[in-house]
């Protein structure tokens, strides 16, 4: 167990290192000299000074080492024009994005799990076919389409909710926070429901055919208890894995949705940094996202063995 | 527990199950599949296509034809035929999808957008298909060190949130059609590599592969002639889904202002330009969104049909 844990952890560190290094390499690959992009009308002297200041005349690996050293010490760099610290931007924007993604993940599972369980139990029925068809359509609905539809009707036409968000931190005013968060959350949630529901449904159908379910039935255990206690747990493993892997899609979705609604989260900051060519800041944002993603999946790997004791040893081989 | 002395019968059963036994998939996925068949989620093999599949094929054919024929179709130019006096007009008889913020015909822009968006999506996935397929085939066939290293590489690429990767590539290298295509290709490589590897792993254990090797077939011949034809359906079904994902990704990139430059008409750019007119002319956003929805739906549907026909297991993805 400890060996598996260590191996997985080492792999996590390796992935983060490679991802950040690739991002770093990419910023160097871009055509043209970054300094002339930052101060296009600067004198040669000013440009030389800035090059020196940004450490651009050092070899790439040294620059990377420097950035990594600072990053590990919690110094995420600063914007080169305003000299604003990336740390403060992250402090205000990351919680907003996390809130958005957590809500989306929570509501997606909250709706998908009962749907998946009940459709599996009544597989083939009208209810099941209807739910399946709806979910298949939802799967084809990109989250920006949902976001734009909401913005057009709920926001612009009926004016029920504000389209341009100015997210108020949850603890201060839950109601205001909700009015701003509701549309972004819905836009992000819909597609996820479909993914999770379809997955859980097919796993549940398989589980319901297992012998231990027949045994439980024979013992006279009520159907509800069989479904929710006996069948759901072994069926939820794939769901959990995909929920973890899906964090990547969720991050991508959050970037789009935050831009459509103007939510001041990390996704919005990333696109701003990209458009303004704020590479040091971008570097740190990408690293933070990669760490977030890899850590979530690491945690799920560990959770796996808690949910299903049989996996504890089997998976260490894989 | 296995019987320590397998008699002939068990060997037979084992042989029969060999087609299902896959080293990379937990055993119960087979049960899952059969359960899904009996429950009606996955259709049992059936000859011919359903009506739904024909509609999907029809839609895609129509779209691809329109995209190819865009220059000869009697539609206004998507960039230059602007009529600022009639900017942001709703649908009329002359302009069935309305006019955009510069007074350009939205219907024409969607068709020209299909030309660029479909080109980007197909080119990206075909590139990913070839490179990812080759990587997956090699890493699945040579299991040892080569497979391990290539497998780890794909895992690293997969660990990158995809849109962030595409965003980074495009913004660093420039907002051109080529760069967006390459960015989406890079994103699709690990996905295709993974499915090909998983599928190759199981097929390369089969007896006919051993037989081919025993008859003196070289590694390359075995991979291309024996394994590839069996792996291909799985790759194709993922590639169809991949094209859908690439179409959405292109639009997403444009929407956050980091896609192809606005002077190239893509579906993403058509939607992006309509975003400022949500109140006055929602049609500018609604129509291209609908076209994207239908296209993604059709591709998902065809991917599903292919998967059901060739019995590709979802848990192997």
TrEMBL record, chain A:
<dbReference type="Pfam" id="PF19300">
    <property type="entry name" value="BPD_transp_1_N"/>
</dbReference>
<feature type="transmembrane region" description="Helical">
    <location>
        <begin position="9"/>
        <end position="27"/>
    </location>
</feature>
<dbReference type="GO" id="GO:0005886">
    <property type="term" value="C:plasma membrane"/>
</dbReference>
<protein>
    <submittedName>
        <fullName>Unannotated protein</fullName>
    </submittedName>
</protein>
<keyword id="KW-1133">Transmembrane helix</keyword>
<feature type="domain" description="ABC transmembrane type-1">
    <location>
        <begin position="94"/>
        <end position="304"/>
    </location>
</feature>
<keyword id="KW-0813">Transport</keyword>
<dbReference type="GO" id="GO:0055085">
    <property type="term" value="P:transmembrane transport"/>
</dbReference>
<dbReference type="Pfam" id="PF00528">
    <property type="entry name" value="BPD_transp_1"/>
</dbReference>
<feature type="transmembrane region" description="Helical">
    <location>
        <begin position="100"/>
        <end position="121"/>
    </location>
</feature>
<feature type="transmembrane region" description="Helical">
    <location>
        <begin position="285"/>
        <end position="307"/>
    </location>
</feature>
<feature type="transmembrane region" description="Helical">
    <location>
        <begin position="178"/>
        <end position="199"/>
    </location>
</feature>
<keyword id="KW-0472">Membrane</keyword>
<dbReference type="InterPro" id="IPR035906">
    <property type="entry name" value="MetI-like_sf"/>
</dbReference>
<keyword id="KW-1003">Cell membrane</keyword>
<feature type="transmembrane region" description="Helical">
    <location>
        <begin position="237"/>
        <end position="257"/>
    </location>
</feature>
<feature type="transmembrane region" description="Helical">
    <location>
        <begin position="133"/>
        <end position="158"/>
    </location>
</feature>
<dbReference type="InterPro" id="IPR000515">
    <property type="entry name" value="MetI-like"/>
</dbReference>
<dbReference type="InterPro" id="IPR045621">
    <property type="entry name" value="BPD_transp_1_N"/>
</dbReference>
<keyword id="KW-0812">Transmembrane</keyword>
From TrEMBL, chain B:
<feature type="transmembrane region" description="Helical">
    <location>
        <begin position="118"/>
        <end position="142"/>
    </location>
</feature>
<feature type="transmembrane region" description="Helical">
    <location>
        <begin position="231"/>
        <end position="249"/>
    </location>
</feature>
<keyword id="KW-1003">Cell membrane</keyword>
<feature type="transmembrane region" description="Helical">
    <location>
        <begin position="149"/>
        <end position="170"/>
    </location>
</feature>
<dbReference type="Pfam" id="PF00528">
    <property type="entry name" value="BPD_transp_1"/>
</dbReference>
<feature type="transmembrane region" description="Helical">
    <location>
        <begin position="51"/>
        <end position="73"/>
    </location>
</feature>
<dbReference type="InterPro" id="IPR035906">
    <property type="entry name" value="MetI-like_sf"/>
</dbReference>
<dbReference type="InterPro" id="IPR050366">
    <property type="entry name" value="BP-dependent_transpt_permease"/>
</dbReference>
<dbReference type="GO" id="GO:0055085">
    <property type="term" value="P:transmembrane transport"/>
</dbReference>
<protein>
    <submittedName>
        <fullName>Unannotated protein</fullName>
    </submittedName>
</protein>
<feature type="transmembrane region" description="Helical">
    <location>
        <begin position="176"/>
        <end position="196"/>
    </location>
</feature>
<feature type="transmembrane region" description="Helical">
    <location>
        <begin position="285"/>
        <end position="303"/>
    </location>
</feature>
<keyword id="KW-1133">Transmembrane helix</keyword>
<dbReference type="GO" id="GO:0005886">
    <property type="term" value="C:plasma membrane"/>
</dbReference>
<keyword id="KW-0813">Transport</keyword>
<dbReference type="InterPro" id="IPR000515">
    <property type="entry name" value="MetI-like"/>
</dbReference>
<feature type="domain" description="ABC transmembrane type-1">
    <location>
        <begin position="114"/>
        <end position="303"/>
    </location>
</feature>
<keyword id="KW-0472">Membrane</keyword>
<keyword id="KW-0812">Transmembrane</keyword>
């Amino acid at each position: 167990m400890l060996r598996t844990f260590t191996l997985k952890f080492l792999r996590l560190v390796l992935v983060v290192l490679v991802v950040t290094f690739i991002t770093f390499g990419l910023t160097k690959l871009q055509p043209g000299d970054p300094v002339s992009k930052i101060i296009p009308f600067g004198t040669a002297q000013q440009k030389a000074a800035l090059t020196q200041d940004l450490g651009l005349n050092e070899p790439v690996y040294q620059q990377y080492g420097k950035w990594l050293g600072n990053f590990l010490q919690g110094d995420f760099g600063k914007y080169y024009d305003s000299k604003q610290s990336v740390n403060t931007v992250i402090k205000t924007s990351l919680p907003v994005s996390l809130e958005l993604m957590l809500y989306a993940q929570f509501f997606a599972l909250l709706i998908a799990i009962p749907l998946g369980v009940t459709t599996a139990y009544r597989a083939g029925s009208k209810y099941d076919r209807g739910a399946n068809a709806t979910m298949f359509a939802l799967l084809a609905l990109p989250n920006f389409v949902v976001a734009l539809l909401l913005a057009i009707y709920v926001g612009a036409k009926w004016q029920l909710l504000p389209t341009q968000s100015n997210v108020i931190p949850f603890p201060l005013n839950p109601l205001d926070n909700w009015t701003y968060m509701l549309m972004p959350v819905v836009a992000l949630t819909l597609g996820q429901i479909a993914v999770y529901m379809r997955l859980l449904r097919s796993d549940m159908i398989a589980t319901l055919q297992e012998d231990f379910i027949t045994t439980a039935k024979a013992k006279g255990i009520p159907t509800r208890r069989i479904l929710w206690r006996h069948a759901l747990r072994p069926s939820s493993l794939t769901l959990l894995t995909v929920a973890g892997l899906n964090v990547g899609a969720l991050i991508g979705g959050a970037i789009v949705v935050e831009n459509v609604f103007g939510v001041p989260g990390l996704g919005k900051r990333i696109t701003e940094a990209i458009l303004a060519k704020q590479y040091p800041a971008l570097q740190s944002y990408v690293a933070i996202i990669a760490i977030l993603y890899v850590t979530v999946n690491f945690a799920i790997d560990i959770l796996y063995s808690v949910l299903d004791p049989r996996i504890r040893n089997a998976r260490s081989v894989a | 527990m296995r019987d320590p002395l397998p008699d002939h019968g068990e060997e037979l059963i084992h042989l029969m199950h060999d087609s299902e036994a896959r080293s990379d998939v937990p055993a119960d996925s087979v049960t899952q599949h059969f359960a899904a068949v009996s429950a009606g989620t996955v259709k049992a093999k059936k000859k011919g296509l359903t009506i739904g599949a024909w509609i999907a094929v029809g839609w895609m054919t129509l779209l691809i034809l329109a995209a190819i024929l865009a220059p000869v179709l009697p539609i206004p130019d998507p960039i230059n035929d602007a009529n600022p006096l009639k900017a942001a007009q709703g649908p009329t008889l002359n302009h069935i999808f309305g006019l955009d913020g510069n007074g350009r015909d939205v219907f024409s822009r969607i068709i020209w957008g299909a030309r660029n968006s479909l080109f980007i999506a197909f080119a990206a996935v075909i590139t990913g298909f070839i490179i990812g397929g080759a990587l997956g085939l090699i890493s699945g066939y040579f299991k040892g060190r080569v497979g391990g290293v290539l497998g780890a590489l794909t895992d690293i690429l997969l660990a990158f949130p995809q849109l962030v990767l595409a965003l980074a590539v495009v913004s660093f290298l420039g907002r051109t059609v080529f760069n967006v295509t390459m960015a989406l290709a890079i994103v699709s490589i690990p996905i295709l590599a993974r499915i090909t590897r998983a599928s190759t792993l199981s097929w390369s254990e089969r007896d006919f592969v051993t037989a081919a090797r025993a008859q003196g077939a070289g590694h390359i011949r075995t991979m291309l002639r024996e394994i590839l034809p069996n792996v291909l359906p799985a790759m194709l079904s993922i590639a169809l889904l991949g094209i859908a994902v690439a179409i959405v990704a292109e639009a997403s990139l444009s929407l956050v202002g980091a896609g192809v430059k606005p002077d190239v008409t893509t579906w993403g750019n058509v939607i992006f330009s309509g975003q400022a007119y949500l109140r006055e002319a929602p049609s500018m956003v609604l129509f291209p969104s609908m076209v994207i929805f239908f296209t993604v739906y059709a591709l998902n549907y065809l991917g599903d049909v292919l998967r059901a026909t060739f019995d590709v297991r979802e848990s192997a993805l």
